[in-house]
């Protein structure tokens, strides 16, 4: 099961990988370009006031008896399942959300900062379908999930290994999280995400992290982040709240994420839509503060348009991009980290549409100063599919965004003026010392060869190049070491739990 | 010759087009997002001082006796072909360059603003190769040039019809500009660009514009813009200066454009490279002011990286993007319009790389506040090729950028709060009045269908979709009307000049 799909020519490649230089992992992007603030103080207040009126006048549903009782106790007006939260209560609770947290990896060198000027890239999440190494679409299996975790480990700019880039449909649901969490912990040494399908799955996630990091460390530090969706408009359901309570109680954050299909689950209006999702995210974050004061939480958004022709989600279009700028500004207003979605496409291939849509969804999110950037590699088919080809293509794109948004180091002009003087009019700079040490970034998958060379090399499309690179990376992959005792303890935990869940099934 | 390549099913399509609503042409983008200023006042001064030292200490070559004599007369120190220009002289000459001009089309409804907060999109320029409607690459011919001019006319967001999206290699060089200028004037009614291959070609361009616009109008208004490249580093050659003198004398602007291959024609340094190209562009613009004070001129840049592996140009990478931000800030410092390049790629297809590269080169240029955006549709193969498929794909992308950078209209929140109230938790917004009038932008070439529907429809890649759309547009194209007398006068001019150039050959 731990075997990647492709191992052809494996021995030679593995020797090569072992003798090659270790990959240079990039830290969280320390953004020096942007953020762009579209709104003046009045605009920020307008959205804030809208969100406050939604939470008090309209109210938000918590479909969960415990949450309702918690809210009542905290001072909200509870009417059936609907919770009306006054501004003072929301803002008082929000005041304890930290603006930034350190997200620990089991390898300390891979720990990253979440919040402030920092941005991290996480991969895609939950795809039921996979576009395979043979180019064929099929349902996702655990072997794919594991392959993508290996590819996450191989990527220089992907900060998070994630948990379920592909939803493994060949594993029974009650046991799935055991495979996912143990794979995420073993196959990569980057920060992982947590399971949220049930209270038990969330608790098992925490327990497995306690095995690897130690109980005391987990209680004091962030070692996992969960993704929890609000049922927009205005419903937090029991499953999500069950998981939220487990994570918050363990002092672990969640991305509290309304899912806005503008025109379907919310208004097709930048201001109205953002007011709605700010209200929903604030309600989730505030509730987490009732569970445990001071627990880090992330304001989440998943934002897309809806085609008025077909009802299909539209990704990478202009208005959701503008709305991401507004959300970013609101997150800075509340002084909390925020999460959004990028690099996605409605295309069923890694084709030109996939390239445009991915880039056009990344730029506004980075310009909005997003801290936790989900789906930054792999998604096709409107998030229903994950493509091996697109995954590795996206993953190299991330290095470019990392470079751009890191901005410019200050440079002394003198050496260049002296180069220009010695090269002189009509000369060239190919031989200067500085050119030889040229620090300009290159993307190894970007083909800039002549037409003739490209033809000789097989006239490959970017999609083909991506598949070949995915195979190469899987072949070169080396599992990061994990202390044998910890690994055994994890296996024992999984085996014991598997028996429990199998018996209950 | 005026016949497009594809006319199959023409009658029906033409009837359809004639009865369909006229295309909605978009005005110049009135940017409300950005620009991003990376530099503080010290950074701006550093680049400015670098440019001034290049122009005075190192000097710049004008390979042209008349220009050397003009510079001497103006007060520069001329040493052989090398002109050393003191800061006071450069800045005094620059002070008469207008910050903005109206670029007139023969149809006044298509005239646009160049400068300040405005951005216009022009198409690609000079490709010797074309990626045809059959997907095959071949040398460009006049029939292609004309087809692209027709496609430019069909595009809602492409502001300029251009002049030579494809370089027509089946027309003798001395006569080429006659076909290009008359085609640009007849096949579209948008602003055109001018020929620069010789003094005679530039003069013929102006004379043809005088036929269409009237002599007096041309003398007082901008009706053409020429693209003139500096031979970076630090050489303005005679051909370019010959053309510049003709355009400037006729009060018509040029995009004075250094061509920076960072690491080859200039230093692989953001600051050093930008100082060099600012120096070159300023020298060209200042010289134009010697020819005619107050003539509008545009600070141009063509900026790309160079692969240290193969020496090939790299398009859409991070550092040239950052350099575009610096150039934009310098143009604002000098208070002149600026021009850059976008939507280009080294790919030999309209594939995922083409999509990423195009978008990744457009965003920084728009964020830098660029006014005159060249190459915004069609380029592949590192600017050596123009692809029909990519052209129409790019042209729809422009509508998305237009929408994003136009920013947000202020919206009253009340109606949306009331919608949210009546929809309530767990409801949907598909039936609200606002959703039905949903103004969110849609790209008709973006496929957001289900996998099954996409499969049923032929499982088409974005490249195939682009080819089909190019055929459809060429079929639906209707030539914009031009007064018969003017058209005849143009034809007579062309016929007479053709005889002259044929006799001279």
TrEMBL record, chains A, B:
Pfam families: MTTB (PF06253). GO terms for biological process: methylation. InterPro entries: MttB-like_sf (IPR038601), MTTB_MeTrfase (IPR010426). Keywords: Methyltransferase, Transferase. The keyword Methyltransferase applies. Gene3D superfamilies: Trimethylamine methyltransferase-like. It comes from the Bacteria. GO terms for molecular function: methyltransferase activity. Its EC number is 2.1.1.-. Belongs to the trimethylamine methyltransferase family. This is Methyltransferase. It comes from Mesorhizobium captivum.
């Amino acid at each position: 099961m731990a075997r990647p799909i492709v191992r052809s020519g494996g021995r030679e490649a593995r020797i090569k990988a072992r003798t090659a230089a270790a990959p240079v992992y990039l830290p969280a992007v320390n953004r020096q370009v942007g953020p762009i603030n579209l709104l003046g103080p009045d605009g920020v207040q307008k959205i804030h006031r809208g969100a406050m009126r939604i939470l008090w006048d309209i109210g938000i549903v918590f479909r969960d008896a415990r949450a309702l009782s918690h809210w009542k106790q905290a001072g909200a007006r509870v009417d059936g399942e609907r919770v009306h939260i006054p501004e003072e209560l929301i803002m008082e609770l929000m005041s304890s959300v930290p603006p930034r947290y350190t997200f620990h990896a089991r390898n300390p060198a891979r720990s990253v900062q979440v919040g402030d000027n920092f941005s991290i890239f996480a991969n895609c999440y939950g795809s039921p379908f996979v576009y395979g190494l043979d180019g064929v679409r099929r349902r996702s299996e655990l072997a794919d999930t594991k392959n993508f975790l290996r590819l996450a480990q191989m990527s220089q700019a992907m900060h998070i290994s994630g948990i379920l880039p592909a939803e493994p449909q060949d594993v029974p649901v009650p046991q799935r999280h055991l495979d996912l969490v143990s794979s995420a912990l073993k196959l990569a040494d980057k920060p992982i995400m947590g399971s949220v399908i049930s209270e038990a799955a969330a608790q098992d996630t925490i327990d497995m992290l306690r095995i690897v990091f130690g109980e005391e460390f987990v209680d004091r530090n962030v070692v996992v982040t969960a993704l929890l969706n609000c049922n927009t408009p205005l419903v937090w359901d029991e499953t999500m709240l069950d998981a939220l309570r487990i994570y918050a109680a363990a002092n672990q954050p969640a991305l509290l994420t309304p899912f806005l299909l503008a025109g379907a689950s919310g208004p097709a209006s930048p201001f109205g839509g953002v007011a709605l999702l700010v209200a929903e995210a604030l309600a989730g974050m505030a509730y987490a503060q009732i569970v445990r004061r001071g627990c880090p939480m992330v304001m989440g958004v998943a934002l897309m348009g809806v085609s008025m022709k077909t009802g299909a989600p539209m990704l990478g279009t202009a208005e959701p991009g503008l709305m991401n700028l507004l959300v970013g500004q609101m997150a800075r207003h509340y002084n909390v980290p925020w999460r959004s979605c990028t690099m996605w496409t409605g295309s069923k291939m890694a084709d030109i549409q996939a390239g445009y849509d991915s880039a056009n969804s990344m730029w506004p999110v980075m310009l909005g100063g997003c801290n936790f950037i989900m789906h930054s590699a792999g998604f096709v088919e409107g998030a229903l599919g994950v493509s091996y080809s697109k995954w590795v293509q996206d993953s190299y794109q991330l290095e470019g965004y990392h470079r751009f948004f890191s901005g410019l180091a200050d440079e002394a002009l003198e050496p260049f003026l002296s180069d220009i003087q010695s090269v002189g009019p009509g000369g060239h700079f190919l031989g200067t010392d500085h050119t030889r040490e040229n620090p300009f970034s290159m993307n190894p998958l970007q083909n800039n060869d002549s037409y003739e060379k490209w033809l000789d090399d097989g006239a490959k499309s970017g999609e083909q190049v991506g598949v070949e690179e995915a195979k190469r990376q899987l072949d070169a992959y080396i599992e990061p070491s994990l202390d044998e005792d910890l690994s055994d303890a994890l296996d024992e935990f999984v085996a014991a739990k598997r028996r429990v869940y199998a018996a209950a099934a």
